[in-house]
């Protein structure tokens, strides 16, 4: 299976690459600076599938176009994993430039990646797009406020995923918003309860089970449907 992963240099993205290679997938990994992604490059040693590293800035149209042009079809699975969280992200610390950048990375980029890789996804016949979202993007589940940029951008990503579920159906492409949970990564912090390998193995297992009846839906890494 040919898999494309953005934001692949650390955390969840790095573990996604590792586990996809381990199961024999051919992986195209997008990172801002491939020459500095030594930990990612090392995964190619002893892997069961081939790894290709590509320069990718998901906020730059030209960069995404060049990335997409370098990916041969078909693409069976696109994982839009690149994400940021500005700090501080509370009401008092809001910065409009940070908000705009957060939206670009967390929401707009997934649409741009999906659109520009659409021919390769279409060629796969039954391809899946996984947009890495968050429980913090759930409006119904917001019980303590704060995290403005992150919450707003992930809610926007969820809405985009819902629309993609309809708009890509005629191409045979399925789209899902997936929450990895609160994970022990640089972004999640050391107090997070979920190990990154457990989260990623869950995400990949859920992706394997989701079908056409689930397209446009929002799920966690255990397969539970989440409220919008």
UniProtKB/TrEMBL annotation:
UniProt-listed SUPFAM superfamilies: NAD(P)-binding Rossmann-fold domains
Signal peptide start-end: none
Pfam families, alphabetized: adh_short
One function term, GO molecular function aspect: oxidoreductase activity, acting on the CH-OH group of donors, NAD or NADP as acceptor
Annotated InterPro entries: NAD(P)-bd_dom_sf, SDR_enzymes, SDR_fam
Coiled coil residues, start to end: none
Family of the protein in this entry: Belongs to the short-chain dehydrogenases/reductases (SDR) family.
Protein name: CsgA protein
